[in-house]
């Protein structure tokens, strides 16, 4: 069973369109996972706008959207996700009960579109079929044969990591999360064990990490260490700092590949497929 992962937005914090962010892209977090059973989407950063156009363009009628947490860079594209406005579409929204969203993300999505924040309310989105709030650690089966496992991440206000299993494939989405140097995160290790692909919060790098303690993010070197320790086949360096221009990211890509051939730097529009 083929599983296709497409990176629709790879930035953290804030979108950064500019001539210096053309190669790796400027949109914020959004991942499309297409399985033979159906469409999955992770986060609704600005990258979800283009995904909406793609899904409608190929006649898609249903999708399951999973949020990691409610920070702006992961939700601000949602009001521009056109399938949610199509009455015949069936969008199922999943979110964890976290510190600041004890009932899941629904109220945050409502507030984001309340006046004077946005011209139309969430209620106008007739394509939303359901909201599902869960506790981290729960397992979800959005389509028959597709299992989504969850785990809590270390992040201000909380965040939820995901592992998608379909047939023999396993793809993990681990953002936003902060590591403690020298102490591999056991929760993350057990969620990503043996996965084909792990998409990991690599906002920073080890050399400058000491000045970012408490900001809720990790480094690409920690991503490689975790991937190697957990027997992961491929690591996608993700959630790039908006300050990291294409030149900076190209240098990271060269360094990361030299450290481990299984590392790749996520670029907007990049697709990875697993059989
Ligand atoms: Zn983020
Ligand atoms: Zn965050």
Describe the structure concisely.
This protein is of the alpha/beta class and 275 residues long. Helices cover 19% and strands 30% of the residues.
Keywords:
alpha/beta; 30% strand; Metallo-beta-lactamase, Chain A; 14 strands; binds zinc ion; 275 residues
Question: What does this entry look like structurally?
Answer:
The relative contact order is 0.17. A hairpin with a 2-residue loop joins strand 2 (30-35) and strand 3 (38-42). The chain has six helices and 14 strands. The strands form two sheets. A seven-stranded mixed beta sheet has the order 6-5-4-3-2-1-14. The N and C termini lie close together (6 Å). The model has no long low-confidence stretch (mean pLDDT 97). It has a single domain, classed as Metallo-beta-lactamase, Chain A (4-Layer Sandwich). It is an alpha/beta fold and 275 residues long. The structure holds zinc ion (2 copies).
Topology, element by element:
Layout: E1 3-9, E2 30-35, E3 38-42, H1 48-57, E4 62-67, H2 72-75, E5 90-96, H3 106-112, E6 128-134, E7 139-143, E8 146-153, E9 159-166, E10 169-174, H4 186-192, E11 197-201, H5 220-229, E12 234-238, H6 246-259, E13 263-265, E14 271-274
The protein binds zinc ion (2 copies).
> Number of domains in the coordinates?
1
Given the helix and strand composition, which structural class is it?
alpha/beta
CATH class assignment? Alpha Beta
Total count of strands: 14
H/E element string? EEEHEHEHEEEEEHEHEHEE
Radius of gyration, rounded?
Answer: 17 Å
Specify the CATH homologous superfamily: Ribonuclease Z/Hydroxyacylglutathione hydrolase-like
Bulk shape: globular
């Amino acid at each position: 069973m083929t599983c296709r992962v497409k990176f629709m937005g790879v930035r953290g914090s804030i979108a950064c369109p500019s001539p210096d962010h053309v190669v790796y892209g400027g949109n914020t977090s959004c991942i499309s996972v297409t399985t033979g059973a159906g469409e999955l989407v992770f986060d609704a950063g600005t990258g979800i706008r283009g995904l909406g156009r793609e899904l409608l363009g190929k006649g898609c009628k249903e999708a399951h959207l999973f949020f990691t947490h409610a920070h702006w860079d992961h939700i601000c594209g949602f009001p521009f996700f056109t399938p949610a406005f199509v009455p015949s579409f069936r969008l199922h929204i999943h979110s964890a009960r976290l510190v600041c969203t004890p009932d899941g993300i629904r109220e945050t999505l409502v507030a984001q579109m309340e006046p004077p924040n946005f011209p139309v309310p969430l209620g106008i989105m007739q394509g939303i079929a359901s909201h599902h709030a869960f506790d981290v650690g729960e397992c979800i089966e959005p389509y028959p044969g597709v299992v989504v496992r969850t785990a809590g991440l270390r992040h201000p206000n909380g965040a939820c990591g995901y592992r998608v299993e379909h047939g023999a494939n396993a793809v993990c989405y681990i953002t936003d999360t902060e590591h403690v140097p020298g102490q591999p995160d056991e929760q993350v290790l057990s969620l990503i064990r043996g996965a084909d692909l792990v998409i990991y919060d690599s906002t920073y790098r080890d050399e400058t990490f000491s000045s970012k303690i408490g900001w809720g993010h990790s480094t690409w070197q920690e991503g490689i260490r975790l991937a190697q320790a957990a027997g992961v086949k491929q690591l996608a360096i993700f959630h790039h700092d908006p300050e990291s221009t294409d030149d900076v990211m190209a240098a990271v890509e060269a360094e990361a590949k030299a450290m481990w051939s299984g590392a790749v730097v996520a670029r907007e529009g990049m697709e990875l497929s697993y059989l």
